[in-house]
Amino acid sequence: MIKCVILDDELLAISYLKLLCEQIDNVEVVKAFNDPKAFLNEIGNIDCNVCILDIEMPGINGLQVAELIHDSKKIIFTTAYKEYAAEAFDLNVVDYVRKPIKIERLMQAFEKAKELVQKSHKKDFIEWNTNIGKTVIFTDQIAYIKTSEIDSRDKDIILNDGTGIVLKNLNFKTLLEMLPAKDFAQVNKKEIIALSSIKVFSTNEIITTIPVNDNSFLKLQIGEIYKKRLSELFEK
């Protein structure tokens, strides 16, 4: 299933794109935005794998938006202006669809996106020794990892749905080498966080999206030697 988010500054264009997407099998429009800044503020917390971006928009254009998110989402550009084609493909996006958009052309773009999403899912998993035996875990489902309080040689993983799994006899150095470097960061000597699980980031503290109870979220203290690495990740 392709879960897509639409960004276009024109409401009529959004409505038309939604209409086309509804006619294509295995495509779901999760959300639509007409403001690039609102899109960038929320996209990290939206469960989607493809973004359809208009290029020509006031303020921040689609090319600039793509540079900020292209590592985490597959991108399809839409535009009425052919002069953007070369620059669009320099970003290694899925496709570049000219307006007015025809459903057949959009279907081709989604087919390309589907192949790329399936390939990335095949690669982004690791088989680990865990408390429930040999277990395949998709890295994009990992929210948080910490040193086990029972045995420091083990590591506790919390998945996005709250499931807990124990990795057996694995140190942080080896663990970080196995995880996608662009998606995870060590916060201190005992904790690793998925960047997608970060809600607020300050000099000394991270507030995550992981609930502790009904009214609060997990907070992590940033170790001094890890501050520079975390800052670099957020500057990219």
TrEMBL record:
PROSITE patterns: RESPONSE_REGULATORY. GO terms for cellular component: cytosol; protein-DNA complex. InterPro entries: CheY-like_superfamily, LytTR_DNA-bd_dom, Sig_transdc_resp-reg_receiver, WalR-like. The keyword Phosphoprotein applies. Residues 3-114 form the Response regulatory domain. The modification 4-aspartylphosphate is found at residue 54. One of its GO terms (molecular function) is transcription cis-regulatory region binding. Signal peptide: none annotated. It comes from Chryseobacterium cheonjiense. Keywords: DNA-binding, Phosphoprotein. GO terms for biological process: regulation of DNA-templated transcription. The keyword Aminoacyl-tRNA synthetase does not apply. This is Response regulator transcription factor.
